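re: ur question from earlier - yeah i can do the single chain one, its not a big deal. heres the input i used so u can compare w yours
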Amino acid sequence: MTLSGDYRALGWNPAQMTFSPLNKNEWKSAIGGIEFGGRLSSSVFERSEIWDDLLNRNNDEANGWTTEQWNDYANLLGNETFALNIDFVSAATAKQWRNWAFAYSNTQHIQGEAYLDQQPIDLLVQGGTSNWTSVFELLLTATGDTIPNSGDFTLEELMSFVGGIELDGDAVIGSILQDTRLGFSWHRSHSIGISKAWRIGEVALHTGISGRLLLGNGYFSIQNNDGELDAFGAFSNGFGFDQIAGIDPGNASLSDVARLWGPVGQGWGLDIGGVVELSDELWVSAAVCDLGQMEWRGERYSFTTSLGSWQSPVVNPENITDILIGAMTPSTWFEAAETETRIVPNGVTFQLGSGIRLNNVLLLAGEVAFDNPELLGNSGTRMGLSAIFQPISLLRFDLGISKWGDETYRVPGGFMLRTGQRGFECGIQATDIQALWKTSQPEIGFRAVAMRWVW
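and the output i got, formated as tokens:
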């Protein structure tokens, strides 16, 4: 991200609006309309057997995984961390004049994280009734009671005993989830920023600041904090399928539909950054990003009765996302909710970057960033190196290496087509291309620019 310029610098380093290393001295205005990207990341994807089944390398007659196969793969998915990030820029613009630059962007951000212990994976994949012996033991552990069973009691009788015990529902769910962590966030950001360049001889200093209005449509978090279960969620009505099904397309007005997706969270963000540029060839940048917070109007979840009738919501799973969606649904784990308003701090990030333009063909850049890994969407440490190769003015290639937190290394690569120094741009970048020479890779993702105009 040390290469982000004009409106794409918002959220990373607003000082690079006047710097714009990839479009240096080539633009006065920029407009973006359709830019998007997404990544699903997990160390489980490094296992070649996962890719063998996904790509049907075993030449099986059946395409996709069956429920029986998922039972076998439950052991592979347990105790694994999954990370999901999706961004969609629906409108953006930037303008540069003299030593000043201004930018605006409208972006949808979706992110999710999941770490599932073995027990929740077994229950989600196999269903509760297929593994009630383990659940029953957890129920007794959570209550502190013991019912000796010499073989005279059936499972139904044991469950009836549990039904008569005064249960701490949250303790029961906490025992089942163990160290499981689940998190999801969906919000829209309206960002504006301003940057100014200051030149002293061969040295140029770029400074910038940007602010964001955050409007949230969904938030969900489950954590076990020192044995105490904390579960909170806030969702627009549009997340409720019964609400959507109740709309009559022939009679529904635009306001009826808009109310389904009214924000349930609002907040603000602030970024401050600077870039020191030497002789138009070398630069060093620094930024503090995502100062601020979000206020979510939602519910704190709890569980108050026996799990005797619980069934897994995941029916005939065919891929990993079926499991993750089931785990991220509050009704999977909880039956009661109490209204609560919660303030969630943004994940403040400290970023350092640098780059050098070796000639008109090759550019090298690198970045390292630090944030709080306890907050949703944060990796703790993020670092990467990129090489930009531009053999002709109409075509640009990029290749790099990156690492997020405890995840293994990624090798992103892509290209960009341009109609000239000023004109239309489009391109795509895969976030990991290791599968080209290996049997697996730890991430599935891409970024794409479908429509962008610079002049």
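The two ends are 22 Å apart (CA to CA). not sure if urs matches, ping me
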